[in-house]
Amino acid sequence: QVHFVQSGGGLVQAGGSLRLSCAASGRTISSYHMGWFRQAPGKEREFVAAISKTGITTYNADSVKGRFTISRDNAKNTVNLQMNSLKPEDAAVYYCAAKVVTTGNYDYWGQGTQVTVSS
Description:
With 119 residues, the chain is mainly beta. The protein is built from no helices and 11 strands. It has strands at residues 3-7, 10-13, 18-25, 33-39, 46-51, 57-59, 68-73, 78-83, 92-99, 106-109, 113-118. Strands 2, 4, 5, 6, 9, 10 and 11 form a 7-stranded mixed sheet that branches. The radius of gyration is 13 Å and the shape is globular.
């Protein structure tokens, strides 16, 4: 029902910044809790950040807290992830996802976008 198109990935040097966007269609993004995940080759998918329907944010404190910011732009039906001070270990495919209230699961996912951090 809801579909996400992600943009904003690319190649940056360590210490640089990227802003990922996740644009929704089919449903308003405010209907869901939204999250960002990432997966590097050979590693499990990792939780990055989430924002509730009421705007409460949570972060993976061990890896991204203080560097990444999740936000929601209801006017553009978009969820964003601002990534600053990028490190080589941040390199991964990043996915946005929507948590369905009735199931409690992240049932809808974007296509993923590659983030590469050199050195």
